[in-house]
TrEMBL record:
Top-level taxon: Bacteria
Compositionally biased spans, kind Low complexity: 33-47
SUPFAM superfamilies the record matches: Microbial ribonucleases
Gene3D superfamilies for this protein: Microbial ribonucleases
UniProt name for this protein: Ribonuclease T1
Gene Ontology molecular function: any one: hydrolase activity
Annotated spans, Disordered: 29-52
Keywords (A to Z) from UniProt: Hydrolase, Nuclease
Amino acid sequence: MPNRPARLLLVLLSALTALLLTGCPGGTGTGSGARSPAASAPGGPATVQAADLPPEARETLRLIDDGGPFPYRKDGSTFGNFERLLPERERGYYREYTVPTPGERDRGARRIVTGREGEVYYTDDHYETFRVVLR
């Protein structure tokens, strides 16, 4: 298991790679839901294709893209990254959004966290683990 700084560096490098592959014209990613040949680099953070997220997470991504309206009051609030699993950034860099969980009476454990530079992360265990969302 890599130490915390090494793990953060791996998350950052993976997020930047995902951003470059999915968001740059002429890159190998199409941004249209094309599947990547490799889901994640060995030893790197886990990734997930947006198309492979639960339907509620795909709907939350659509709402984020559209600028709302969001069903939960806390949607769009600052994500503090207190777990330090995402790359360290200044306060306010990350925003969090609830992904509804069928059958839950409250907000549940699922969230999408976005970064100011377009990064997207998904957690289904209330910030214990994150996957980089490839779009």
